[in-house]
């Protein structure tokens, strides 16, 4: 009887979890225009303290925008380079729930964490 009850409970939990969207809906969508006059290569850092040059990333032409979604419990950092892969700086979005300042464009760069390479290898 205990095994049957446990199995039934497990099935109910799995069905309930399966019906809910994984991670939920994004709290906020960001659109950062490239107002620099030249293409920018944008790559998400694995974590805030470990940005690497964008060997691969999104090439954002001048006048177009880089778009991403973020959840309330996330922090994001992106390393930004020119089209040749030279690191220009980083963008950081701390929390999506309305606290903190947000970059307004791809030109709102801050200093990257120590150890960020200056160019792609």
Strand order of the largest sheet: 3-2-5-6
Largest sheet: 4 strands, antiparallel
Q: What sequence of helices (H) and strands (E) makes up the elements?
A: HEEEEEE
Name the poorly predicted regions: 5-21
Please give the alpha-carbon distance between the first and last residues.
Answer: 62 Å
Mean pLDDT: 76
- How big a fraction of the residues is strand? 25-35%
Radius of gyration over alpha carbons?
Answer: 20 Å
Tell me the count of domains. 1
- Fold-level CATH name: Immunoglobulin-like
Summarize the structure in words.
The protein has one helix at residues 2-19; strands at 28-33, 40-44, 58-60, 65-70, 76-82, 87-93. It is of the alpha+beta class and 121 residues long. The protein has a single domain (24-121), classed as Immunoglobulin-like (Sandwich), CATH 2.60.40. A hairpin with a 4-residue loop joins strand 5 (76-82) and strand 6. It is globular. The protein starts with a helix and ends in a 28-residue tail after the last strand. The relative contact order is 0.22.
What order do the helices and strands come in, and which of them pair?
Elements: H1 2-19, E1 28-33, E2 40-44, E3 58-60, E4 65-70, E5 76-82, E6 87-93
Task: From the structure above, extract its key features.
121 residues, alpha+beta, Immunoglobulin-like, four-stranded antiparallel β-sheet, two-stranded antiparallel sheet, 6 strands
Concise synopsis of the structure shown:
The protein is α+β, with helices and mostly antiparallel strands. The protein has one helix at residues 2-19, and strands spanning 28-33, 40-44, 58-60, 65-70, 76-82, 87-93.
């Amino acid at each position: 009887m205990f095994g049957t009850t446990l199995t039934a409970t497990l099935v109910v939990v799995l069905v309930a979890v399966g019906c809910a969207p994984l991670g939920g809906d994004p709290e906020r969508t960001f659109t950062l225009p490239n107002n620099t006059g030249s293409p920018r290569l944008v790559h998400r850092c694995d974590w805030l303290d470990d940005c690497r040059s964008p060997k691969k990333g999104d090439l954002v032409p001048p006048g177009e925008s880089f778009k991403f979604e973020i959840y309330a419990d996330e922090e994001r950092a992106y390393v930004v380079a020119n089209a040749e892969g030279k690191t220009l700086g980083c963008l950081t979005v701390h929390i999506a729930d309305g606290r903190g300042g947000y970059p307004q464009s791809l030109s709102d760069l801050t200093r990257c964490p120590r150890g960020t390479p200056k160019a792609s290898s």
